[in-house]
Design a protein that fits this description.
single chain; transmembrane; DUF4199 domain-containing protein; membrane; DUF4199
């Protein structure tokens, strides 16, 4: 999503690492939200399921915002994203010594995918959700496992 921010000055792998690091940083607020809910509104107790539910709701909302922003950004600011991505990928393959036959094969596969990405909004939306949602799901699972604190049964002395 930060294609215009960095232009072509960074490699595709560097931009991917930066993008996922940013997602992880943003989704780290899931920990804060679950802990705040547990400690402030739920008497210091929360089940794994409830914590996971909170994390998944946050993931859904954040992912939807990400998708909407990307759709607008793509449409109005980087409609040539696919062409630029493919050109940089081919240049990086050439620079790393990939054979011409392999470059041609991967270039044809990318061209087909990018054509579908450009013309099919449902495909673009799905692809964009698949970029961000798994990060939020994993962080939700980790946060729920770490922050769960089940109610301990009271011991009754008779």
């Amino acid at each position: 999503m930060c294609e215009g921010l960095f232009s072509d000055s960074l490699s595709l792998n560097t931009r991917m690492i930066f993008g996922y690091a940013t997602m992880i940083l943003g989704f780290s607020l899931i920990f804060v939200a679950i802990k705040n809910y547990r400690d402030t509104y739920n008497n210091g107790q929360i089940t794994f399921g409830k914590a996971l539910g909170i994390g998944l709701w946050i993931t859904l909302i954040a992912s939807t915002v990400y998708v909407v922003v990307w759709m607008i950004y793509y449409q109005y600011f980087v409609p040539d994203f696919g062409d630029k991505y493919q050109a940089q990928a081919v240049a990086e393959m050439k620079a790393s010594g990939v054979s011409a036959a392999e470059i041609q094969k991967q270039s044809a596969e990318m061209a087909a995918m990018m054509a579908k990405y450009k013309t099919n909004i449902a495909y673009r939306v799905m692809f964009t959700y698949l970029e961000i949602a798994p990060v939020g799901i994993v962080i939700s699972l980790i946060a729920a496992a770490i922050l769960r604190r089940n109610v301990k049964p009271a011991i009754v002395n008779a």
